[in-house]
Amino acid sequence: MARLLANAQIHGYTVGIGGDLSVVGVKVSTFYFFFYSLLLSPSVLAQNGRISASTRKLYDSAERLLPFDREQALKLYKKTIETDSSFAAPYMRIGQLLFDSKETKEEAYLYFEKAIKNDSNERAFLRIYEILGKQYLQKGDYSKAEAYFKGYVRLSPQPKSSAHRSVLRYLKQCEYAQYHLPPSTKQGKHQRLSFPINKALAQSYPVLSADLQTLIYTHNNGDEDIFVSKRTLQGWTEPKSVSGQINKATNEGTCSISSDGNVLVFTACHRKTNIGKCDLYISHKTGNAWSEPINLGPTVNSQGWQSQPALSADGTVLYFSSDRQGGLGGKDIWCTSLNTFGEWRVPINLGAQINTEFDEISPFIHSNNQTLFFASDGWPSVGGFDIFISKKEYAGWTTTQNLGFPLNDFADQMGFYITPDCQEAFYSYHDRSVPSENGAVVSSLCHYSLPDSLKQLCPAMTFVKGRVVDSETKRPLKAMIGLSEKAEQIATFYSDDSTGVFLFVVSPQAKTQVEVKRKNYLSQHFNLRLAADSSFQNGTWEILLTPIKVDSTLVLQHTLFTKNSSALLVAPYSALEHLAEYLKQNLATQLIIEGHTDDVGTAEANYTLSLQRAEAVKRYLLEKGIEEQRLRVKGYGKSRPLVQHGSEQARQQNRRVECKIVE
Fold first, then answer.
1. pLDDT digits (tens, 9 = 90+) for 313-329
2. Crossing angle for the helix pair 126-139 and 142-155, nearest 10 degrees?
3. DSSP-derived secondary structure letter, 201
């Protein structure tokens, strides 16, 4: 099992226990770094000759003991400040020793502050100014944090260094927070998901299926794995491993799932099949079983770190965070998409509209495929990682916008997921000011009802759920489901091979056409009326596909003809293409084409119209290369209605053509 220290999914670094000086995403330092940095600064020991010989002697004794007996050295340092409370150096040493243990780490800050108070101009204390500033920034005490960061800037000898630039960033966070947060407010109200979620040491990066019934997230109780929980009327079910195919002995996490819940892209670290430290893998679900994960390969995965994938609703575009070469600095957000051969293209960097010289992580592309949410500690924030938003437009990404308080506060907010209807958000929340166990990054899963101001930034979508079955046997079928708007195909999905279930998301305002087809079956066509029919959302929509075979009758309907017309409409052409393809593959098969009308008009007029409709289908098949001697036409007018009711919907069903397949 992976060690508890590992948290590669979140920041890409190992989180240490003893001597960990990592604060707000800073890499690990040690006690000995402090020790030698202070040892090289004689001015702090001299303090302008104010230290008595006896006090200096005690301090020197402690210094000699320090490499061999830290406990005895600590006692001598404390005795030193008892003899002279204005001596800065022993306060520094005591702080270092206390900081090196998680049990006494909080106490160390008090000694660091006293060291600076006694000698505020000592350049050797530069690192302590930074640490104290970060400590107060993590607690949301922006004024104190600002004072220490300004002290660092005042003493820093290298204003162009990366450390100096980082402190300037923290200073901007303090200024931004004090300007944007309500007075006397530093922490938002974060609503944790109910039991049994959030009972592990750490959980992060939640994602849900489009129907919001399945929650998948990174679970850390000593090993990072992907866990799943189902929503029921009684609440969330007991979380469990998503699959033994996916969770192995190494770390797995930060996943993304397609809207139908059947495609999973996730991060795996330190596997033998890895290209980099952490790579992206993909797995497909059939029924309840996940396939063996496949590494996305060297086009997507570099020799560096890539994690936190975000898959578009149709599964064709993938966003992720990486520290690969060619970025703007730190971790950047990149994007790849599938080409016409089903292969991932070379990832592109989203550019300076999204990425900074620091870290941009945990991207999430909403199911509207326009709105991108991500976490950053480089853009102006109120401390740590905040959630930001940008929208994709023709000219590129819009200006990045902080989602603001109360969602963002001094803690880290990341792993953002917004429901298709833009009503609710799920995210992981980590308050670094709260001491954690065993050095692990402790985080909780929270949810948040979006205010109207944020809903306006996120065009709402809705999900459509149903099942495809054989019309005769009721056997579930895997079928291709194509979505079109304004005669242009916008997405393609497949129903599940073992259950026939499908799920996709569409705009509730769009006029969406749905085509369902499978080889050797007559395809079906629908115009979605989401506002009028709730069955599209509740999963009761059942699509019956009729097999094309000898002695079967195929009904061509669904607005095949308009009133009083024999002109074929565009929508059913693909159904006829299936029929034409079947006839090409079965050369002995013949077809009787029967035309029918509704009950409006005289019997003579309807007979003529029905014959003309049958002839229109015949002409179409002739154009597709079917021999004329294999096609016969008949007209029945209004004499054989499918539906007897006189409504317009019934008449529409009766305006049809039936094809009987014979030898």
1. 888 899 999 999 999 98
2. 160
3. S
